[in-house]
Amino acid sequence: MNVHPSHHGAFEHPLAPWIDAILEREQFAEALRDVALRLVAMHDIAPRIVRYTANLQKWLLTQAILTLHFERKTDPTRSGLTAAKLLDFFVANNVASRNTAVAHLAEMRSYRLLLDAEWAGDKRLRPLIVSETAEDLIRQWFDGHLRSLDRLDKGRRCDLSIAKPSLMHFAHPRATRRLFGEPGWCSPPESVATFVWTESGSNILHDLIARLPKGELAEGQITIGPLRISEITNRYIISKSHAQRVFARARDLGIVGWQRPGNRGDLWVSSALVHDYRRWQAVKFAALEEAFDWAVARTA
């Protein structure tokens, strides 16, 4: 991925030390549960909008759009968003095929997350505007993650972000550009990928993690309580056949299962899935922590 001019030389140090430090923090499991609960709650409020980040590819597509949008805000000399520019960006950076990217942009326009600016020139060059709804949602996502980071070290990141909203405009692009280049995020372990590379799979995985019992978890199978496939399909607006395929693949990997035949009784998840999820999420938290510290120093 091309680096924003203000980021030249920014990533000379690996993210690994931040990741390891986060995983070692005693409160990370509970902070992660808080984020999972917030993400599921955001879906429940606006399910048809939040679905645009509900699997990893859509997350990458949407975050790339927001990255270019915020970089334009912090550097007015940069050209504005256009469909052609976004499509070239997606394809050049292996985010998605042109057809997938076109469909994603069309859906975001349909739900008015992206708006067409008034334009009298060539329609192919018509600027796009990120709607207030989209900005409000990413603000909730961003500050929610800062709140969980604060829980780890009793920091004041969220308070700083609320007091100075422009910090997100600097920190978000830096974090997402970092994540685009991090295999630990874009190529998660098979246990995580089984969910997050499928439609609404990220939401399903967050939901499972939010149901984990509190405290130290045992190795092996961890019971999270009764959960039927119909609850998943109704909540995340997906077909029964799709949900069954996702859970069948996960069951074949030995990372989820029901205690009774026919997907009945309590559902369990494996400690291996929990460990893989935590490390995957730690990559995102580390990128946000490093980027926010950088933004604070840059705008001081």
From TrEMBL:
Top-rank taxon, per record: Bacteria
Protein name per Swiss-Prot or TrEMBL: Uncharacterized protein
